[in-house]
Amino acid sequence: MMTGVHQARGEILLEGRPVQPIYFTQEVSDLSSSHVMAVETLLRFLDADGIVHHFTRITDTPEALELDPVLRPLFSAAKMAAARALFRHGYKYVGFNISLAHLADLDWVRDAEAMCAQVQREFPGHGVVFEILEHEQPDGAAQEALDLAFDQLRALGATFAIDDFGKLGSSVLRLCRLQPEYVKFDRSLVEVIAQSDFSHSMVKAIVAQCQQHGISVIAEGVETAAMSRLWEGLNVTLQQGYHFDRPRRRP
C-alpha cells in the first residue's frame, strides 16, 4: 500500500508491527459559557509497546488508510467508540478530521451516515462535526458530489467545519464553495491581525460576515491569554489551543 505500511487480516501493520487507531482529544472552549460543549478528536496510532505514532509517521496521506476497504471498518468502529465515550463524558459535539477524498468516496459516506444515524439514536441532541483538512478546490463535477454528501450527512444531524482557514489553500473561495457551519481560523492570523489596522479590519470583517450568515468562527492555536483576548476582541468566543487544553488520550 505504501512504504512501511501493510495490512493483514484487517490489521494495520507499521514496519511489520501491528498498530491500532486511537483518538486523542482537545476541547473547544466557549468563553460565553462556563461549560465546554465541543471536543475535536485527533487520530493517532498505538503499537504493542504503548508508543503513540502520529499519522505522518505512517503516511503523508492518512486518508489512504481510512479509505482502504479492509481497514475502513476498523476506523469506523474506533470513531463510534470515541464518540460514544465523549458524549457520555458530557460533550455535545465531537469533531473528526476528514479530507475531501473522504466525501468523494461513496462507501466512506455510507459508513459516516451509519455512524451519524447511530449517534442520533443513542444520543439525541448531540452531533458529529466533520472538519475538512484538504486544501484542493473541487471542480464542477466534484462539487456536485460534495454537495450530495453534505446533504446526506446533514440530514442525519452532521455539521461541517473548514480547518486552518487563512492558511495555504484554505481561502475565502473555499469558504464560499463549501459553506460550512463552522470555520476554524488558523493561528497564523494572529500575526496578521497585529501587523496593521488594515489587517485587523479585514479579519474582523470576515469574522462578522461569517457570523452574520450563521457560520460560527473558532480560533485555533490559542496558546496565551493575550491571544485569547485578541480573538475575544473580535467577537470570537469559541477558542481552541494549549491555553485551554492540551491533546490527551481519553480512557
TrEMBL record:
Residue ranges annotated for the EAL domain, each copy included: 2-251
Family annotation (SMART domains): EAL
Listed name of the protein: EAL domain-containing protein
Provenance organism: Paragemmobacter amnigenus
SUPFAM superfamilies membership: EAL domain-like
Pfam families in the record: EAL
